[in-house]
Specification:
This is Trace amine-associated receptor 1. This protein has 334 residues and is mostly helical. 75% of the residues lie in helices and 0% in strands. It is globular and about 75 Å long. About 1% of the residues have low confidence.
């Protein structure tokens, strides 16, 4: 048995995985990190560079991509070493900074997803008043809330040690050790983190997308009824509306499916662990944290790769055409 620190009595135990296992884990995690960085960086460059993409919705997507890029840049590399080695080599103060930044950026990413769902609701369900309701000022308020609330919550929780409140004895006797940096929550802080970072924004997303789907379905039926009344290209129009309905259902299913698959297991374990006397293995918790990180990897694919403008922007970036004169004025939207 090997230890993270020289003082064996108070040191965390190092992982006993073989070198091949460690190499495999490092390779997989580096791949996730690079995919996260590249995907979100392309979104950031696309929205920043092309003037046609300077819309309120796209600035919200740009802000989310920035959050996810910073998560891949500032958080994931250190989490990778901790997950593979089961040791923290970067000091106790930086542990608090890393944990706070991790919670902040992960929560901010989820907040952005929630606000994007609100933006999509007005775009689909109230298109005539969309521009009046979702102005650039409203988007800036959404972005400000998405960054500030998670920052205050995360740094306040960790630096004031509110996350261990009510479970100090268990934490300092059985969890805390030199050379470790675990994310720990007591019962009340765990429920608070679950509600703030996952349940409330997740419920908003679920309710709004559920409503969007049924309003889109109703709109498709209205089109069908109009077509039946006028008997103009009935079969062809029905096919188009049904196709749009299926596409809307598929897109919303992917959005919610990716979010729930990535984050639900981690937050469920976080909120239940204190109530089952912290019997959930740390290794499982690490795996679930990385599942959560994958949401930031998939976000640019879900929210940008499905758009034709993104594919055109990607092609121009890869070919180096963005360095040509007036490339920022290129038309990406038909």
């Amino acid at each position: 048995m090997s230890f993270c620190h020289d003082v064996i009595n108070v040191s965390c135990v190092k992982s006993n995985w073989s070198n091949d296992t460690r190499a495999t884990l490092y390779s997989l995690m580096v791949l996730v990190i690079l995919t996260t960085l590249v995907g979100n960086l392309i979104v950031i460059i696309s929205v920043s560079h092309f003037k046609q993409l300077h819309t309120p919705t796209n600035w919200l997507i740009h802000s989310m991509a920035t959050v996810d890029f910073l998560l891949g840049c500032l958080v994931m590399p250190y989490s990778m070493v901790r997950s593979v080695e089961h040791c923290w080599y970067f000091g106790e103060v930086f542990c608090k900074i890393h944990t706070s930044t991790d919670i902040m950026l992960s929560s901010a990413s989820i907040f952005h997803l929630s606000f994007i769902s609100i933006d999509r609701y007005y775009a689909v369900c109230d298109p005539l008043r969309y521009k009046a309701r979702i102005s650039i000022l409203v988007i800036l308020v959404m972005i400000f809330i998405s960054w500030s609330v998670p920052a205050i919550f995360a740094f306040g929780m960790i630096f004031l040690e509110l996350n261990v409140k009510g479970a100090e004895e268990i934490y300092y006797k059985h969890v805390h050790c030199i050379g470790g940096c675990s994310v720990f929550f007591g019962k009340t802080p765990g429920v608070l983190a679950f509600m703030t970072s996952f349940y409330i924004p997740g419920s908003i997303m679920l309710c709004i997308y559920y409503r969007i789907y049924f309003i889109a379905k109703r709109q498709a039926r209205s089109i069908n009824n109009a077509n039946q009344k006028f008997q103009i290209g009935l079969e062809e129009k029905n096919g188009i509306s049904q196709s749009k309905e299926r596409k809307a259902a598929k897109t919303l299913g992917i959005v919610m499916g990716v979010f729930l698959i990535c984050w639900c297991p981690f937050f469920v374990c976080t909120v239940t662990d204190p109530f089952v006397e912290y019997t959930i293995p740390p290794t499982l918790n690490d795996v679930l944290i990385w599942f959560g990180y994958l949401n930031s990897t998939f976000n640019p694919m879900v929210y940008a790769f499905f758009y034709p403008w993104f594919r055109r922007a990607l092609k121009m970036i890869l070919l180096g055409n963005i360095f040509q004169k007036d490339s920022s004025r290129c038309k990406l939207l038909s």
